[in-house]
Amino acid sequence: MSSAIQGNILTSAGWVRGEISFSERIAAIHGSSTDPSKNEDVYILPGFIDLHVHGGGGKDVMEGGDAVHTIAAIHAKHGTTSMLATTMTAPPEDIDLALQGIGKAAALRGKGEARVLGVHLEGPFINSGKLGAQPPYARTAKLADVERLEAIAPIKLITVAPEIGGHLELVRELSDAGMRVQIGHTLGTYEDGVAALEHGAHGFTHLFNAMTGLHHREPGMVGAALAHAQYAEFIPDLLHVHPGAIRTALRCIPHLYCVTDSTAATGMPDGEYMLGRHTVMKCMGGVRLPDGTLAGSTLTMDQALRNLVGLGLDLADASARVSTYAADYLGLQERGRLAPGAYADFVVLDRDLNLKAVYIEGELL
User: Fold this and answer.
1) For 42-59, what is the mean pLDDT?
2) pTM (2 d.p.)
3) What is the pLDDT of residue 64?
4) How far apart are CA 307 and CA 320, in angstroms?
5) Is 41 a catalytic residue?
6) Which of 202, 193, 53 is nearest to 116 (CA)?
7) Which residues are annotated as a binding site for substrate?
8) Which structural domain range is residue 193 located in?
9) What CATH code is carried by the domain that includes residue 152?
């Protein structure tokens, strides 16, 4: 059945005041060019795409089973229409269990759930000296290890520390196999970062966090990202990254995009939750290990959008950073944009950028 809604529509060609008609996919967009600040209509934006989701609604991806369905439903309520379920560094049996659950969720989207596109394998192929909130199960990888995991669930994105012996070659092999490789949880130098990009790495995992910082004589991995990256993810909860650092990255990285790095505590009251094999505490708006280390977030993508606008970005730019750039990064031309033929994934916002409605593949939540 075909449906239609009206408002200020952010199309691939700019703002249109008019009507969007759709079923599972967008059929047509009719209207005329507009400046949305000059009328009171709602905003209709591409649905949010989150490539780094550990949990939500009290559930953690590493639990396996049906946990991912609960997580996808919680994030859908906040406008996320597509996501990557993200693993933690863990023993092989834990990762296998998580991927089995992700694989089932990716194969069949449940009613009211965000589309699970596949896996962001954040661990275990990282540097044990830069774990951040990752449990201590880091190890070196070979292509066969990743291929075995890929047979369980579709791996779309993988975080690697390139300075580990053999990992530069792995970056090339994974890139050649069609996976997006990100640099993260790394003690690597600026030179290691440049080498990884030259070997086919595509971006950086939660920029600034769990990587060597910028110094004017030792630029570090942050320096490599700021100098050379086209894409990088960051967590705009205003806890993980100072607004000044966000503004710096926005000037340097053309397609900087948002992720939540959200945990089981998302959408839940303060208290203790699981993050892989870690117990974490939600309090004072953040999630931390007992030693105070930030351990993911409780951010949702609708709040990420509001935070970006609060930093001074115009709404179209902010929208691209919570949707279109992530889709482009994964090569998804049918998501992250409002255009005929694209999936009918979009959000409706009021003038204060509060969610009024979420549509996922034409389904109204």
Assistant:
1) 98
2) 0.97
3) 97
4) 14
5) no
6) 53
7) 133, 209-210, 217, 240, 294-296
8) 47-334
9) 3.20.20.140
